[in-house]
């Protein structure tokens, strides 16, 4: 096991891909083990994601939060687009299930609030790091050159820019908002020459979306 971890740590590609894939596998397990499993799986996934970020952080130098008003502004704008576009286009997937812990645990509001808090914290603090490292640091640059570390973050290339946003977008049920979201975060990465500001924008979007879901009871976004 230790030797396998060493191989991942020593590979610039694997250290960016393996944590994301592990997180994705846990995501796919949500809902597969009973009606309440999506909530417990999200809790486990969030804790595992925090561990993965702690483990990979020393080896991925660009995974550092960068905060300024531009990043915050992009995050707010993406949130507005995500919510505003929602009724205007068909979504991917046909699932009618809704992630609402208050209906899943009607007799335990404290447990429901635990899962709500976990969802907001996970999507705000864990998801941005893992996704931005995978999509922006790795995929965007790898499409341009398999020696992706030689590609500067501030280099704009049309084909990688479009393809990465498409991949990112179609990984979400809200595919159109996801594509536009990908464009915005990639633009920020290029403008700021790194993924730190994109991580912040991504976190702001997810935080606002989580607050919106709970405030407006629009659980369909989760």
- Class by alpha and beta content: mainly alpha
Strand content: under 5%
Q: DSSP helix count? A: 9
End-to-end C-alpha gap: 35 Å
Could you describe the largest sheet, including whether it forms a barrel?
none
The strand count comes to 0
Radius of gyration: 17 Å
Mean pLDDT reading: 93
What's the domain count? 1
Element-level helix/strand string? HHHHHHHHH
Low-confidence stretches: none
In brief:
With 222 residues, the protein is mainly α. It has 9 helices and no strands.
Protein model, in words:
- This protein has 222 residues and is an all-alpha fold.
- It has one domain.
- Helices cover 69% and strands 0% of the residues.
- Helix 2 runs antiparallel to helix 3 (37-56), helix 3 (37-56) packs across helix 6 and helix 4 packs across helix 9.
- The chain is globular and about 55 Å long.
- It starts with a helix and ends in a 6-residue tail after the last helix.
- The model has no long low-confidence stretch (mean pLDDT 93).
Keywords:
222 residues; mainly alpha; globular
Topology:
Elements: H1 2-10, H2 14-29, H3 37-56, H4 69-85, H5 101-104, H6 109-144, H7 158-169, H8 175-192, H9 196-216
Helix pairs in contact: 2-3, 2-6, 3-6, 4-8, 4-9, 6-7, 6-9, 7-8, 8-9
């Amino acid at each position: 096991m230790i030797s396998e971890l060493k191989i991942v740590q020593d590979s610039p590609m694997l250290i960016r891909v393996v944590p994301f894939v592990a997180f994705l596998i846990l995501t796919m397990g949500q809902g597969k083990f009973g009606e309440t499993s999506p909530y417990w799986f999200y809790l486990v996934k969030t804790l595992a994601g925090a561990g993965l970020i702690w483990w990979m952080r020393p080896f991925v130098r660009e995974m550092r939060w960068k905060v300024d008003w531009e990043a915050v502004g992009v995050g707010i704008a993406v949130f507005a687009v995500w919510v505003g576009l929602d009724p205007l286009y068909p979504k991917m997937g046909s699932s009618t299930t809704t992630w609402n812990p208050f209906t899943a645990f009607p007799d335990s509001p404290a447990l429901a609030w635990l899962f709500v808090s976990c969802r907001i914290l996970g999507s705000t603090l864990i998801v941005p790091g893992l996704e931005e490292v995978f999509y922006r640091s790795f995929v965007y640059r790898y499409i341009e050159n398999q020696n992706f570390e030689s590609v500067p973050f501030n280099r704009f290339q049309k084909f990688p820019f479009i393809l990465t946003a498409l991949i990112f977008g179609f990984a979400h049920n809200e595919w159109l908002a996801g594509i536009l979201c990908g464009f915005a975060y990639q633009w920020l990465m290029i403008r700021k020459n790194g993924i730190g500001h994109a991580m912040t924008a991504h976190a702001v979007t997810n935080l606002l979306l989580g607050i919106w879901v709970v405030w407006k009871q629009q659980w369909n976004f989760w």
